Amino acid sequence: MSSDIILYTWSTANGIKASITLEELGLPYKLEPIDIGANIQKEEWFLKISPNGRIPALVDGSQRVFESGSIMLYLADKYDTDRKISYAPGTSQYIEQVSWLMFQMGGIGPMQGQANHFRLVANVRSDYSIKRYLEETKRLYSVLESRLKESPYLAGSKYTIADIASFTWVRRGPALLEIDLSEFPALEKWVDEIGKRPAVQKGADVPHVDRTNEQKELFQSARAKIDGMTNFDKH
Ligand SMILES: N[C@@H](CCC(=O)N[C@@H](CS)C(=O)NCC(=O)O)C(=O)O
């Protein structure tokens, strides 16, 4: 299938949702790496594509698409005519797929993102914030766990973009936040299975960056640094 897709991304939980979707669909695309550490995402030219100044974003001919969930829906609705990783618009399963996709976009992404921030990168220690966002992240995982106990995939019997969206976040929970996935056995099995898909492995490495400096020890020392600060909260 031919396409004029340009993907602007970086290898983060939100960024790889787009590249994994493209790889699953076997769609050719031109990659434009946006180094978020260098703040390229805030440059004027990029804001015209992604007004919120964040990755991922995509341009397909004259169409811009921003927000990872919107990108996934756009690609699935337009290009997944064989319904490999999506349900057809207008069906009940499609609504289930969108519901779980929005659950990730409005829940796991923002909550786990804040948990990551207060646990790993904040320059103050706030035990209240760490507890609030970590507990909420785990509560959201328990919602996924309940769903995956009754259904093989989030939207039903088929692996879809809804699974990809939560997968990219949940897979990072153990290393970044020390979340023990064995507390969520159905979720752990689902993560392992999705992680083995060749398109997922390929898409998760876009753009390829050297991860040798991102080993467990780096996250451990980031957490230890925050633990060593005085708690900022007023009691
Ligand atoms: N809701 C947005 C969130 C995008 C987002 O937060 N992207 C992060 C990387 S995972 C980013 O661009 N961070 C750079 C910044 O905030 O300046 C989506 O799902 O696309």
Key descriptive features of the protein:
single chain, 235 residues, alpha+beta, Glutaredoxin, Glutathione S-transferase Yfyf (Class Pi), Chain A, domain 2, 2 domains, four-stranded mixed β-sheet, 10 helices, 53% helix, globular, binds glutathione
Helix content: 40-55%
Low-confidence stretches: none
- Sequence of secondary-structure elements: EHEHEEHHHHHHHH
* CATH fold node name of the largest domain: Glutathione S-transferase Yfyf (Class Pi), Chain A, domain 2
CATH architecture of the largest domain: Up-down Bundle
Alpha carbon gyration radius: 18 Å
- Tell me the major beta sheet: 4 strands, mixed
The beta-strand count equals 4
Bound molecules: glutathione
Question: Distance between termini?
Answer: 60 Å
Specify the number of helices: 10
Helix-strand category: alpha+beta
Q: Describe it for me?
A:
- The chain has a 4-stranded mixed sheet, covered by helices on one side.
- The radius of gyration is 18 Å and the shape is globular.
- 53% of the residues lie in helices and 7% in strands.
- With 235 residues, it is α+β, with helices and mostly antiparallel strands.
- Strand 3 and strand 4 form a beta hairpin.
- It has 2 domains: 5-79, 3-Layer(aba) Sandwich (Glutaredoxin); 92-203, Glutathione S-transferase Yfyf (Class Pi), Chain A, domain 2, CATH 1.20.1050.10.
- The protein has helices at 15-25, 44-47, 68-79, 92-121, 127-150, 161-170, 173-177, 185-195, 198-203, 216-227, and strands spanning 5-9, 30-33, 57-60, 63-66.
- It is built from 10 helices and 4 strands; from the N terminus they run E-H-E-H-E-E-H-H-H-H-H-H-H-H.
- Helix 4 (92-121) crosses helix 10 (216-227).
- The structure holds glutathione.
- Glutathione binds at residues 12-15, 36, 41, 53-56, 67-69, 105, 109.
